[in-house]
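INTERNAL AUDIT FORM
Audit reference: QA-55
Scope: verify that the stored structure record matches its stored sequence.
Auditor: D.O.
Record contents follow.
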Amino acid sequence: MTPSLFALVDCNNFYASCERMFRPDLAGRPIVVLSNNDGCVVARSAEAKQLGIKMAVPVYQIANQLRQHHVAVFSSNYALYADISNRVMTTLEQMVPKVEVYSIDEAFLDLSRLDKCTDIHQLALNIYHRIPQWIGISVCVGIGPTKTLAKLANHAAKRYPATRGVVDLRDRERQRRLMALIPVDEVWGIGRRLTKRLNIMGINTALQLADAHPKLIRDTFSVTVERTVRELNGIACDDIQEVAATKQQIISSRSFGSRIDNLEAMQQAINEYTFRACEKLRSERQCAKAMSVFVHTSPFSDATPQYSKSLSGSLVRPSNDTRDFVTLGQSLLQRIWREGHAYAKAGVMLGDFFGAGVFQLGLFDDVTPRPKSKELMQLLDKVNHSGHGKIWFAGQGIDPTWGMKREQLSPRYTTQWAQLPIVK
């Protein structure tokens, strides 16, 4: 049996790096990227981290610091980030046979099936140099016999400049030396709550966790933490997942840029969220039968009446036709809407998924499917993803009075012809 071997490729300060790609004037300047509605810091460049700017801090609390240090501030540009991520992952797929896209800026590579003559360390160096050369994003590479050790190796590659962006943890002694330096809360899957409990047991480093008895850890915590212990000892418990697991639900929701207090604007918002959820449903090649709609006011406002309500409904047969869920969603909204409130957030959730052709109608169910539904939805998605325009449903749209606040949004350099950078 071929021993397992993984690499984790992680883009450095990904969101901030994407913003800097087309702005050479930002070289060396601190950058922060904000969450939806420009609320909190969700990404920082290395320079911003050196200023002590923390993740998730509300932007109004650091406004003076941002001005004082001339920090470049950006709203989240998800279209740009997703496209750059796709370019990184496509490049990796050209270099190794099996890639698992773990997140927008991380991917696990299966190195165990490479030719025995392959120089693994040289391959990692090639990745380290090729991604910034081809894409413009710097990366670090961690290598290990398990995913957890590959994660630790990548952490060391980022933390210690002397590694020059690549750390190879195939050697057991090197694994133990590194684990002795790594706090247990830096281990993949060990969160803040688990760390407190482990610290009480005298487990403060990754090495101490690796040396703990697996059965004791399982009895005290869970089988998941036991698997982490085994992975720290070089026993692979998780293989590369080439096909993503089917989602159990799809949620489309967002806080409003300004409060909604009239039904027409809320109907537009629910239609927009329904459209996005159904688009995602079709991309997963699934149909859904159940839908929930929810609305609520801000829980942080004492000056206005509070109201929160959700309601679920179901189709007779599963569908991924946006029209079916727009009709159902508006019906549910009418039943939970209450006048006299300033709503801060709303959303929809699709659930009860079926693969195409799996559901069977009951004996007395009499529902005729919409003619040409599949062809129409395919055409809809094709046009909307082409970049040449967009098809809207009646009652759908983003009203500027409630749409997401994105005052510092950069251009979509790579996905919109009109926003291509101009070189003079």
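Auditor finding: record pair retrieved intact. Residues 263-283 form the longest helix (21 residues).
Action required: none
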